[in-house]
Every structure is written in C-alpha cells, then in structure tokens.
Amino acid sequence: MMALMHVLTEADPELDPDISSGDTVGTTRAALDLGLPVHFLPRVGSPDSEDDVLGGLAPVAQPGPTVWLGYIPTPERYAQVFEAARERGLHLLNDPEAHLRALEFPRAWPHLRGLTPDSYVIESPAQVEEALDALGLPVFIKGTVLSRKSYGWKACVAETREEARTLAEKLLRTARFSRERVVLRHFVPLRRTGEVMEGFPCSREYRLFLFRNEVVGEGYYWPFGDPFGPLTPAELEQVRGLAREAARRLAVPLLAVDVAQAEDGSWLVIEVGDPQFAGLSHISPRGFIQRLHAVLTGA
How far apart are CA 192 and CA 180, in angstroms? Predict the structure, then answer.
C-alpha cells in the first residue's frame, strides 16, 4: 500500500475563487475534504519563492505520489518544482520530459499520427506556404501549448493563404501560446452543437484524464452540456479507446485527452495535455481526485 497522494496547489490558501482559478480551487477543496495532504505553493515572484520555489516547505513525514494543481508553468519552472518536490519526498506523477510531451503538441504529434488530423509544425512565417501545400485550406492554426479559441473562429481558422500567414505570425509573436513554434492542422469539420462560446462554435467533444491508461476522469468539454445526449455504450467505447491509445503511445503517466466527433460520425483525438494544468470541463473535481488517489494507492 502506497502512502497518501499529496497535492501541490497554486490555489490561494483561503480558497478564494476570485484570486485563484475556479477549477484549481474546486479540486484543492476536494483533496482537503478527502483528507489528503495539501501543500500551497507560493506565487511566482513572491518573496517566499525567490530562493525556494516551494516556499521553504520542509520534507514530508510520509513521502508519496504527488499531483500539482495550477497554471501552465514554463519548462524551467516545472523542472525546478519537480526537483525541489522530490528532495522533500513529493514525487510528481509526470517528470519534466513527460510533462512537455503532454503539453507541447509538436512533441506529441509524432506519436499521434492516425489518431488526430495531419499537422505541420513551423518555426517561421516562411514555412507557412510549405505547410499549406501539404495540408490545403481551410486550416486550423494553434500554438505549441494553446490555441486562440477564446478569441473566436477567425483567430484559429484560416481560409486563405494570407490569413494563414497573418495568424501564424501573430502566434509566433505570442510566446505563451507558441513557445516559438506554431502548428498548422488539416481542417476536419466537427459535429456542431449549435452553441457558440466566445465566438467559437462548439462541437461534440469530451475531455478525459488518464493515469497509466486508466480513465480517472471524463466529461463533456463545453460548459453547455451535450445536446445529443449521453454517449451510447458503443460511443463511450470508441472515445475511451482513442484516449487510451493516445496515452499508450505517448507513455505519459498522467494525461489529458480531448476527443471529438466529426460530421461523418467518426471520432478523433483533438488535443492532449497535462491534467495538472488543464480545465476540468464537466469532470467532477472530487471524482477525479478520489479516483486518482484510489488508483495510486490501490484503495
């Protein structure tokens, strides 16, 4: 039997959703309610974090597996927290290499061929033409880490070569999205729901969290709920099967996988990520933490 799962969190210690992300607060509260050890990380740039990213946290009495709940860190910060936590007996589930393989799509793409739309990674606007020759138009364009869906359809989808160059140039200038690389993706029409979120049309899409290929959380991606109703047993099998295959190929212990339905009824992987820094969508915070802890400890 392993020790209790520990939680490192960037939620405010007062659990104020006006200060911390609502998902981070909700999951942290769930961990506290379940009696798990929770350690609050100091804010980046605060006096407590200047000399120690863990704010002077002492070694824990019972070392154990650890999950970090917070905001997407730089690769350097993730490595620093990973090493500092390990020195105190806190073993993050994803090492720095696995974290980046989940978070940065250019690292994941070679493993996901056949599960997700064809993609082309560029590092300069001069490569846009070559990418379009391979993928055609329209094309979906995103950064290494994030897309710009919150800015609307036209911030992600280019229908002309000029639009593609403009979007790629803008993303390359936005380091927090691109990390100096941009991804152009073959456009696959998805099954739309009729809802629009911040100018972006919603599709039938689900988010799954997996630990070592076992589903520890799943739910509809968009906030409105699935207008087509719950997944049928056959659909659920397809969605989970795709997520598990993505996890198997990537060999990332803790992985987020977004799976969507195309207009023709087929399912495909849209995106992968690190659940430590992913929104919950319709995933239950308590259910996720409880299930993950049970899988880790054999409870």
Answer: 31
